[in-house]
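Our consortium's second objective concerns turning raw sequence data into structural hypotheses that experimental partners can test. To show how far this objective has progressed, the report includes one record in full. It was chosen at random from the queue rather than selected for favorable results. The single chain below, 150 residues long, was entered without modification.
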Amino acid sequence: MTDSTSSSVRITAEPGAVLDVIADFESYPDWADQVKTVKVLSEDGDGWADQVEYVLDAGAVKDTYVLEYDWDGIAEDGSGVVSWHLVRAGVLKALDGSYTLSGKDGGTQVDYSLAVDVKIPMIGMLKRKAEKVIIDTALKELKKRVESLP
């Protein structure tokens, strides 16, 4: 099993607003620097994206991959857990994670967990550092995007 790395951020918006940005996959290239294109491949019966294809260019790591999402842990106000796992990829062997959204004092606590594994050999310490950079960048960009919306 792949070890995971986690981090948190507080966003000054309600959980539903944060969830809306997370679920708007096709807008990711507008605010997530390393994501070049995104295509929703399928949706579940409630209109949530089920499988999403990404083209990633993170310098040393370039890949096209598909994630499958689980929205079952989401409450009506947008709080709860959105999780995903890797379905297929070129370089990546695992990319499993989750966002946990909790309403706090008129804002949202976002806890992000991510486990990454690649098909090429990599020292565990370097892999964890890469996970940390991915998570920190994703949280900063998510916060900036959500808080910039009207």
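The partners drew two points from this record. Residues 44 and 50 are 6 Å apart (CA to CA). The helical segments are 15-23, 28-31, 124-148. Both points have been shared with the crystallography group to help prioritize constructs.
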